[in-house]
Amino acid sequence: MNCPYCHSEHTKKLSAIYQAGTTVSSGTGFAIGSQPGQFGTVNTTIISRTIDAENAKAPEKMNYSNIFVALIVWIVPMIGLGMVGSRFVPVPFLLAMAYVIYQFPAIYHQRNSVYPELMRFYSSSSKCMKCHATFQENFEWNPAIYDWSWKKFIHDHFLFTKTSVLLMGIGAAFALYPFVLNFVLVHSLPYLAGYFFEFSVATLLITSGVITAKNAKLRTIV
Q1: Each residue of 190-210: b (16+ CB within 10 Å) or e?
Q2: Where do transmembrane segments lie in this chain (predicted)?
């Protein structure tokens, strides 16, 4: 393939540059412990890359690790591991819940719509070894890569029936009750210990409503 800029024939795929410039080596080293007489051998693996290879890396797929951490922050106060008596618990609890609700669809979209397009773009990309320009061969973006919003995500994955709306509505009422009561009476956030039942029921009902809506959507697809 000729470079469209300088017309040189000396071009390479980015994937080929990455593979050629990446070296993986393994070996055994000698280690000494912190205490007298502690020593032994350790196996090591070293991955080295050239500058060209580093610049030719494939795009990365987003992972759910931050979501899992936020879920732990969200769930731990509800199971009462020594923190349910603190008035500060609802703050990270609510922040973690908001983060999960906001970030999960974005990560899902990146992994299932954006990432495949990025990999297709990467696979069609070549670099001219003479003028160092990067170019693509017969590539057009799929418009679906931009077509994401909360409204579309919900429409594509959930069908809210009367049952699912009822479950989620009752769950929301259970979740809001402690906050309304505490702000009206003492103008503060509620103790989770004092409203563990309400928050637990709210979580179960809202989760059941979401699952019901998801199953309803799957039935329409089938």
Answers
A1: bbbeebbebbebbbebbebbb
A2: 67-85, 91-109, 159-180, 192-213
**pLDDT score, position 81:** 47
Q: How far apart are CA 18 and CA 22, in angstroms?
A: 6
- Count of all residues that appear for the chain in the document: 222
Distance in angstroms (rounded) separating the CA atoms of residues 196 and 204: 12
Confidence at residue 85, expressed as pLDDT on a 0 to 100 scale: 47
Q: Using an 8 Å Cβ cutoff, are 126 and 1 in contact?
A: yes
Kindly state the helix (H) or strand (E) to which residue 151 belongs, with its residue range.
helix 150-157
pTM of the model as a whole: 0.56
Residue 121: is it exposed, middle or buried by C-beta count within 10 angstroms (0-12/13-18/19+)? middle
pLDDT of amino acid 110:
85
Model confidence at 66, pLDDT cuts 50, 70, 90, reads confident
DSSP lists the bridge partners of residue 135 as 126
Instruction: Enter the tokens of residue 86.
Output: 């603190």
Query: Which residues have CB under 8 Å from 67's CB, separation 6+?
Result: 100, 103, 104, 107
